[in-house]
Amino acid sequence: MRxxxxxxxxxxxxxxxxxxxxALDEEIHEHIALLTExxxxxxMSAQDAARAARRQFGNVTLLKERQRGQRGMLLVxxxxxxVCFGMRMLAKKPGLHAAxxxxxxxxxxxxxxxxxIVDAVLLRPLPYAHPEQLMEVRSRQMAGAMPxxxxxxxxxxxxxxxxxxFEELVSYHGESLTLTGVERPxxxxxxxxxxxLLPLAGVKPEQGLGFRPExxxxxxxxxxxxxxxxxxxxxxxxxxxxxxIQLSGEAYRIVGVMPTTFRFPVDAxxxxxxxxxxxxxxxxxxxxxxNRGNHELAVIGRLKPGxxxxxxxxxxxxxxxxxxxxxxDTNTENNxxxxxSELTALLGDTRTLLMVILGAVGLVLLIxxxxxxxxxxxxxxxxxxxxxxxxxxxxxxxxxxxxxxxxSLMLSALGGLAGCALAFAATPVVLRLIGDSVPRxxxxxxxxxxxxxxxxxxxxxxxxxxxxxxxxxxxxxLLSPLKNGGRGETDGRRGLGSVVIVGQVALGIVLxxxxxxxxxxxxxxxxxxxxxxxxxxxxxxxETPDSRYSSTRPEFYRxxxxxxxxxxxxxxxxxxxxxxxxxxxxxxxxxxxxxxLPKGQLESARMDLVSPEYFRAMDIPxxxxxxFSDADTENxxxxxxxxxxxxxxxxxxxNVIGKKLKPGAGNDxxxxxxxxxxxxxxxxxxxxxxxxxxxxxxxxxxxxKWCCMYSxxxxxxxxxxxxxDVRRLVASMDGNIxxxxxxxxxxxxxxxxxxPRFAMVLLSAFAGLxxxxxxxxxxxxxxxxxxxxxxEIGVRLALGAPRQMVFRMVLHQAAMLVAVGMGLGxxxxxxxxxxxxxxxxxxxxxxxxxxAGVCGLVAATGLMAAYLPARRAMQVDPALALRCE
Length: 885
Description:
This protein is α+β, with helices and mostly antiparallel strands. The chain folds into 4 domains: 2-73, no CATH class; 142-334, no CATH class; 350-526 and 754-883, no CATH class; 544-736, no CATH class. It is built from 29 helices and 21 strands. It starts with a helix and ends with a helix.
């Protein structure tokens, strides 16, 4: 308690310091006056008496300092005086210090913007209870090179029954349904899940109780809806639980309304409903829930307390191995499993990409700090006489260092404030650039944790760029400048500036090389041949529910496409279940009589279901045979078309027309043999795919049970101008099926390229900023060097040196700094190139042409930065330079 009272007294003393100082001055004056009167009474003159009184009283300044230290916090007072003095010093050179603040603002603002994204995507926990226990479980081929894949329902049921490591295992896959019975039919995106989603997430519904185990039984139709859907379509009806709604022609009973913040999966914020896997279970042996060949599920689990992910991984591998032995015909290619954290599975390669960008922007901040440090070194040269005078008046070296550090921290604080303002403006721009290509990025923003990061970065930057100049200014002989008029200059300061420039050039090489590689990669992607013409192509989707179109779907589509092709401006129109550039794919195995294999080892390829004239609409060349036609129905001979890559891979380039295969896909019965009637060109199904996958096509006219198709329309008009006509056409045929996902093919490709595009743009922006800062830094160092060597240059010129030689001398100095930095930068770029390898397409991480171009750019900018100081050195007047000395 006594210490607290003392501390409180010191705080009060600090607050009332001005009043206390006035009282102390009055008291000291009274004491000295009394002593003076006493000495006057002893016969001294007034002047001698005053001198004797002051001598006896002692050092007034020291007494005041001690008294302030006793009643207040001396360090706080001194720091406040340092701040006030620093503000006066900053005001003396507003242009120089404004340049420093702007430099720091760019570095801190860029770091704050990127950190706001990293914080939302990487650092925040998943929005579920105990997110560290959540794991994703994937199917895996133990001895193969195939990537981890989806899971089938029977395997999931076996995993759930046999696993002892998980409290809950939940399956899920995406689903789209149409809400009818409202003012306008509404397309809804949602998820089909197992009943125990809420126990796994640790979330309770806002209304209702959620799912029960019996809700997975065949015939059950229950749904939980999002808070947004509850408000927008049902007016926040408090009696919504138990109400039945129509979804794609079937009656579903609402059993819950989820909280406002609930999202599942995390990367699907648009989901507005969740229903159970009963929708995939019709109670027959043909149901998806009984099909071990249909791998469409993702599986998430919650570990039991005390169970490590490695333990769960080993257990799931053992279970998958037993299933492979028990079901060799279906599980041979999925004879293992893999368990990884849900956050890791969600982010994938995005984590590495964001860390690369964060590292790049950190290098930009280092370059900015180097620039400010160099400017402070220049400023310290001008203040050499001031530091010497302060030292002569009694200031020790630590006091000088503290004063200079306070000034540096003030600069960093101003830079931090400006950087935060820049981050507030830049973050929305960057988020628009990223779009939906990064999971959870929509949650990014400049919030309190981000502002705390900006504060920490600002303080750290102040120490980084301020400590070395402060120590350098306070070290060495501080009395010599008083003797020679402040002309003292050491090679050490010039050497520090040169070291900083070398480091900046090296970092600039690394950043620019990385940006150039990503730009080269993006150019390869943008110029890739998709195998079809992407311009003037409109795509959209609408649902044809089984409840109304199970048996009439082929006839509906035939009539629909006839009417669609008759619209003004339409050149061709068709449909596809698996449209390129949609991230959707279906791989189905097939039997080949020329290469018979056991059922569990059958070859597989990408499959697509298309309508007649699809290849004409997409402008995919027909290389041999014929296209599908309306005559290809369920009752006609079963046919298929393959791509050129398919024919080359599985038939080694032989003529495949007339050959027969048995794809594993069936309509409403067992698979049948199909005759190959055509060969078409290869198609790139993903904008970031480096290879053209082999694919075989089946005709939708022979698959009435398969739903639903994207429509593709080739037009000579602006594609989106057809949207109103398309909506009217579909509504005229069925008013309960809304048209959704209307986009041009160019837009779809652009969406798929969003992640490499934003990485390229950000890294290029940071590389450009780094080059500009390096240019400014090199210019400052060279200008500082010329000013410091002005007398030397004057002597050289006075002794007959040609001015061109002086010009070359300065350029040579700059060239040496740039050359050393380039050497270090090239080594660093080669060493770090492998980090970007996973994000490069059509180029290697150590592309010599790219590296040579980067070096040429950096060398050119370096010589540009040195040109003006070299010209200034060449124009030095020897007489004026020597006269100043």
